[in-house]
Known about the structure:
About 75% of the residues lie in helices and about 0% in strands. The chain is built from 15 helices and no strands. By secondary structure, the chain is an all-alpha fold. It has 2 domains: about 10-170, UbiA prenyltransferase (Tetracycline Repressor, domain 2, Orthogonal Bundle), CATH 1.10.357.140; about 170-305. It has helices at about 5-20, 35-40, 45-75, 75-80, 90-95, 100-120, 120-140, 145-165, 175-195, 200-205, 215-235, 240-245, 255-270, 275-280, 285-300. Helix 3 packs parallel to helix 7 (about 120-140) and helix 9 (about 175-195) runs antiparallel to helix 11 (about 215-235).
Amino acid sequence: MSTPAATTQQPGLVRALAQAMRPYQWTKNLLVFAALLFAKKFVGPDAAHFVLLSLGAFAAFCAASSAAYLVNDVWDAAADRAHPLKRLRPVASGALPAPVAVVAAVALAAAALGGGLALGRPFALAVLAYVNLQIAYTVVLKHVVILDVLCISASFVLRAWAGALVLGVAFSHWLMICAALLALFLALAKRRHELVEVDNAVAHRPSLADYSPQLLDQMIAVVTASTLMAYALYTIDPRTAEKFHTEKLVYTIPFVLYGIFRYLYLVYSKDGGGCPTRHLLTDWPLLLDVFLYAVASALIVSGAL
């Protein structure tokens, strides 16, 4: 027979666990659908099968990423308590006991790997690589200047690569380059926000001592130009036109331009950049731009336009 106190505590614990799993961050895992779009697997007689495979891949990465966030929160609990916002995280605040978070992380990682094996050994290895990368990032790599943002970029590339593996299609070099550069852009903008906007930033992230606003601004400028150039070259590549039987993909460049410029506006004019996923979910011009880009790309790739 449960006591009233235990009954009251249980919903609070479940709520804290759900919060620590960071479901709003699952938007990053939408990158696994890139191969579905650019390999044209969302049309044709087997489209439903490929869509289900991509949905399974998305679910596996959601479980894996939530496991990684739980491990990170347990590992960084002491440092998070010194951060003005991170101190409110469930583990740091004490709302979620560390042992419960560890058990949940192991269960989620096991579910991700088990689901990955059901989708194929190559995909499961990609999930395993992602989990190991996230653990290495939490323990060591996020404290090493430049390697920290490269590690974040690699995690996005792994998502895109896994999306191709689950469908059994070749992993486009263009997709890899664009995913890596876009992730670098977001990671550098986040580091800039932490350095400029967060009080005592170096205390909770020592690698920030090796950055400066000027260095980050230059790196952001380089990566921004590289991202736009890489995507533009992809759209006009003769092999792209041959693959999709159209040269119209170039007309999606304005959406990419606007999206990047809008994000730069949020970073430099609105002191944003601290959480890319929250911007995507709350900034309606950016959300609308991403939606229109996805629709336009799907229509062009499928031959409807």
